[in-house]
Write a structure and sequence with these properties.
FRMsr_CS, GAF domain-containing protein, GAF, alpha+beta, 159 residues, 6-stranded antiparallel β-sheet
């Protein structure tokens, strides 16, 4: 049985712990969608002050909604559009302190104020993105980016 442990350390220690918990959740499971679903649920439990966390998966030149936790979301996002599409196109994590200042931001949830998007790449190809929204501005920083990239690498290792 999997148990979520309390997160009482530094931010870095807590991120390391959640990555260890992710490894336990996905160990031996080869179904990518199941692993993404559990990963979204784990992050939803772990991260504070967020209102949406989930994955978009590459289909042609678009991102299509995958497993998530939160309100219903935009289903399709073209590469290069919005924060998710831009992160996918550029293959680079994007941290947006204020989504209202991001050119072309796609407002799926009016409550979202800040966002972080981490591309998921395998063999140089973007296979999707991890998208996390917050109802407060300036919620995400470089520490979040660094550890969420490690989190995504852990998921990708199952492929």
């Amino acid at each position: 049985m999997f148990h979520v442990t309390a997160y009482n350390g530094t931010r870095e220690e807590n991120y390391e712990l959640v990555i260890q918990q992710l490894r336990s959740l996905i160990d031996g499971e080869t179904n990518f969608i199941a692993n993404l679903a559990n990963a979204a649920a784990l992050l939803n439990h772990f991260l504070h002050e967020i209102n949406w966390v989930g994955f978009y998966l590459t289909e042609g030149d678009e991102l299509v909604l995958g497993p998530f936790q939160g309100l219903p979301a935009c289903v399709r996002i073209p590469f290069g559009k919005g924060v998710c599409g831009t992160a996918a196109k550029n293959k680079k994590t994007i941290i947006v302190p204020d989504v209202h200042l991001f050119p072309g931001h796609i407002a799926c949830d009016a409550a979202s104020q800040s966002e972080i998007v981490v591309p998921m790449t395998k063999d140089g190809n973007v296979i999707g993105v991890l998208d996390i929204d917050s109802p407060i501005k300036n919620r995400f920083d470089e520490t979040d980016g660094q550890y969420l990239e490690k989190f995504v690498e852990t998921i990708i290792s199952t492929l």
